[in-house]
């Protein structure tokens, strides 16, 4: 099986072929990811711009004011494909279903495939802090260029201990496989029945300290951090290479871009990992939003 031809815009025939491959040739799905043309991790400028699309598997389908924006898989794939058409986009962060779709569609050729690993702590569930590893694992990561995991530390929830232990094993396994792993740490707590990530400077610094020590080596560990107040102090807390988390900001796009630009100039920050902000911009122009972010990263 050869990957679907990557046209400038995904067509109905592309999706028809994707459905056919999934139904009639499942072995070729894994081959599409593992055997696609690959690239080096870092481009010449040493910076990365990754589009994130791992939200749905955690039950997070909202973008902006639209509670089900990411529910339509075909629209989501079209938006990701539009982003990947920009040569300054280095890759995609996703769960197996997303990356498999994109690989069969030929959209991950010479792009980084960043595999999201732990998806067990579903949004708004009573077991949200029991964030088991239910997606990619290192043993099955032959088609991945980068791994990613979320590490939420809740000092009032005993489930955090098991999550930290599993996360440490994942860091160690990734290092043995020489697979870079992106750790997204938060200090979190239950608030009115929901998990809330603490985005003050001190909480982010504490989360970094805990996450950086996971595993039996940090040689292949990266961080994925939110942009918060006093990023100079935040980045003074680690020597690990760091990518900025775009999040789902409430402010205007101009304010968001300005905050990214300020942070991108700090030592240790290597680029951006952005999802809904670019894939579902307020004006609907994915191409323009991606272009602005790409210029911020790669200049």
Q: Would you kindly provide a written description of the structure presented here, covering whatever features stand out?
A:
The chain is an alpha/beta fold. It has a single domain (12-298), classed as Alpha-Beta Barrel (TIM Barrel), CATH 3.20.20. The protein contains 10 helices and 9 strands. It has helices spanning 12-24, 26-34, 73-84, 96-104, 159-176, 201-212, 231-235, 253-264, 276-279, 286-298; strands spanning 48-52, 91-94, 112-116, 146-153, 181-191, 194-197, 221-226, 242-245, 269-274. It has an 8-stranded parallel beta barrel with strand order 1-2-3-4-5-7-8-9, surrounded by 6 helices. Helix 2 (26-34) packs across helix 4 (96-104) and helix 8 (253-264) packs parallel to helix 10. It is globular, with a radius of gyration of 18 Å. The termini are far apart.
State the gist of this model.
The chain is of the alpha/beta class. The chain contains ten helices and nine strands.
Which features does this protein show?
TIM Barrel; 299 residues; 10 helices; alpha/beta; single chain; 8-stranded parallel β-barrel
Instruction: Determine the mean pLDDT.
Output: 93
CATH fold label: TIM Barrel
Quick one: overall form? globular
CATH class: Alpha Beta
Write the layout of secondary structure elements.
Blueprint: H1 12-24, H2 26-34, E1 48-52, H3 73-84, E2 91-94, H4 96-104, E3 112-116, E4 146-153, H5 159-176, E5 181-191, E6 194-197, H6 201-212, E7 221-226, H7 231-235, E8 242-245, H8 253-264, E9 269-274, H9 276-279, H10 286-298
Parallel strand pairs: 1-2, 1-9, 2-3, 3-4, 4-5, 5-7, 7-8, 8-9
Antiparallel strand pairs: 5-6
Helix pairs in contact: 2-4, 8-10
